[in-house]
Amino acid sequence: MSDIRSTIKQILQANTSPDVFGWIEEDRPLNNAFMLLPRKTGKAPLKLIAGQSEAISTAMPGFSVDAWTVDHLGRAYLLMNLDSSNKEEYFRKIESLFMAAEMSEQVALYSSLPLLAHPELWVKRCSEGIRSNIGIVLEAIMYNNPYPSQNLDQAAWNQLVLKAFFTDKDINNIVGIDARVNKDLAYIISDYAHERWAAGRELNPNMWRLVGPFIDEKLFEDIKRLFDDGKLTDRRAGALAIAASNYAPARALLNNYPELEKAIEKKNLSWNTIAG
User: Fold this and answer.
1) pLDDT per residue as tens digits for the range 230-271
2) 12 and 89 co-located in one domain
3) Disulfide engineering: 62 pairs with which of 162, 175, 189, 276, CB 3.0-4.6 Å?
4) CA 214 to CA 135: how far, in whole Å?
5) Is 225 among the domain residues?
6) How many helices, marked H, and strands, marked E, lie in the chain?
7) Claim: this prediction has a pTM higher than 0.85
8) InterPro entries annotated for this entry (predicted)?
């Protein structure tokens, strides 16, 4: 954690004046500093120099501040400087911020979860945040944030992923999306797909990347529907899902589409390029 703190400090110093950075480092009540900080720093996008993004991702894989603003990073830095030796007092101070936070403060708090000490303390708070209907708050929890995948239990993680699809979030930005696939989630996705189909609504093709490794007799019916639908994107999704499966009937179905098999083998078709 000391490495990432050092990099964040360097970035913040480079994006503020000496007087402002000095103000940030002064000892004052956290609630007041957290609230007042944007008035001191402004809200300009961060300017990073070569190597800083890489230093952060090396110190904390999956984490990024590239799209943050100066006040956003300043608030994260305040949290990192908070004394965590008294666990109960540390929790009380940060929880009080969550309880009183307006929207931009919520964004700073949730996106800073991986930077906080005692990660077990914030699981309930993170799980509650997933129920938010505020788009940028959800993105703070979901995007470039390794905390959920590392700390949420399976039920809460599956809720996060389903909420991402339900709110049209880009799951490519969710850290751990492929590492935490599970059979329960595959069946949840299947049920969600059937609801969407029944309502005549479109499906995000990336849903099926979470189903592929668990294709069985029941889930195979969904995959066959993707091929029968006639849309190229759906067939591509079905093919990529099958490529992650050992279910023999599914593999046999893919044999009927040699052009898709070939594209996958040559890496010309992936979940990132499925709509291309």
Assistant:
1) 789 999 999 999 999 999 999 999 999 999 999 999 999 999
2) yes
3) 175
4) 30
5) yes
6) 16, 0
7) yes
8) EboA_dom (IPR047715)
